Amino acid sequence: MSDILWQLFDEQGRPIKDKGAAKKEVFGQGLLHAAAHVWIWRRTPSGAEVLLQKRADSKMTWPGRYDISAAGHVDLGEDELTAALRETKEEIGLEVTALQLRSIGVHRAHLRADENAIENEFQFLYLLELPENTGFKLHEIEVESLEWKSLENFAIEVKDQKDRYVPHSYIYYATVLTAIGRAAAEDSADK
Prior knowledge:
The chain is of the alpha+beta class and about 190 residues long. It contains four helices and nine strands. Strands 3, 4, 5, 6, 7, 8 and 9 form a seven-stranded mixed beta sheet that branches. It has a two-stranded antiparallel sheet with strand order 1-2.
């Protein structure tokens, strides 16, 4: 696992051909890299819900905090969509196709997790709608638990209970909340 190299990117969000670095080097030097974020949601009789992952206590960055449904860094030579599909299967045991994912944008982030870890990355954001009865198989080393939250409660919590969540920016969370809200409204209008 420690031999895996993450793909490095230029400031325009393009992968640098054949240029990768190990996790420790990327975090330690704040090298520009990328991650794929898959936000899973579902419609229920009471409204849209979002699936949150509670990060395992063994995680290097933000242990024990709530975060994206499934996410991970882009490996050397891999594109962001492939990373999204791989991480969704690895972290929560869900095999999905590219057609099921809906791109909602790219966010540029620079977060200091601690004195040894700087997340300097492009975050490729995707939505995935699932039916209510979907089952998951958690990667025990990475994921402590999963929890469904109403979109309304999620919006309140990321604003008022920041210490429970990975500290993504207001713009980041607003992008996710708006996209899920629009997707839920589109789905309702189509039915």
